[in-house]
Write a structure and sequence with these properties.
Rossmann fold; 20% strand; globular; 6 helices; alpha/beta
């Protein structure tokens, strides 16, 4: 990893201009995942040397899907804050709620939010099914199949709201999803064997 550019120019390849201090927060988040997240099983120990590329920068792709009018989002099954906390760092005007039912993971998220000073992120320690307040965006990474993720997100999205789904390199996308007015594939610069983002709009 280059000491002069720890993000390898990846934000620029996405067309993203990060706010002041964001790159430093992302580097600190990477270290936090390595030191605290791996022992909790948030990422595999085999990924210890590629957390930035495989997890942090991969999650950063979701920031491309955030539009000017978007004000709020849920990261469904947030786990280690990938992608929700990364998007919150890159998009400080977006209020991101990190939804995580598992207590130890929620505690890690609360620690990360506090240590990194991400004021637009908040942890919701509970189940996705318990959420009620509608939002503009939902994020789903390593959550479930496209159809299952849409089923969880659909009732949480405002009219016109979107689910940003991280598809694998090989994925089966349904031709139709109940209540979805649009399904589109968002091709971005990718790292390793990651697949595209699939945007499902209500």
């Amino acid at each position: 990893m280059s000491p002069t550019d720890p993000l390898h120019g990846f934000p620029e390849s996405l067309g993203l201009e990060l706010p002041l201090g964001a790159a430093d927060r992302l580097v600190r988040f990477e270290a936090l995942i390595r030191e605290r997240g791996i022992p909790l099983g948030l990422v595999s120990s085999g990924d210890a040397d590629r957390i930035m590329e495989r997890h942090v920068l991969d999650s950063l792709r979701a920031a491309v899907a955030v539009e000017a009018g978007d004000a709020s989002a849920y990261d469904l099954g947030a786990g280690g804050g990938l992608p929700g906390l990364v998007v919150a760092i890159a998009r400080p005007r977006l209020a991101v709620r990190l939804v995580e039912a598992r207590r130890r993971r929620a505690a890690f998220l609360e620690l990360a939010v506090e240590e990194l000073g991400v004021v637009n992120a908040a942890v919701i320690p509970g189940r996705v099914e318990e959420l009620e307040e509608p939002v503009d965006l939902c994020f789903a990474r390593a959550l479930a199949s496209p159809a299952e993720s849409w089923s969880l997100a659909r009732g949480l999205l405002r009219a016109g709201g979107r689910l940003v789904y991280f598809a694998g390199a090989h994925f089966d996308l349904p031709d139709e999803l109940p209540g979805a007015r649009e399904i589109r594939v968002l091709e971005t610069a990718v790292l390793e064997s990651t697949g595209p983002l699939v945007i499902m709009a209500r």
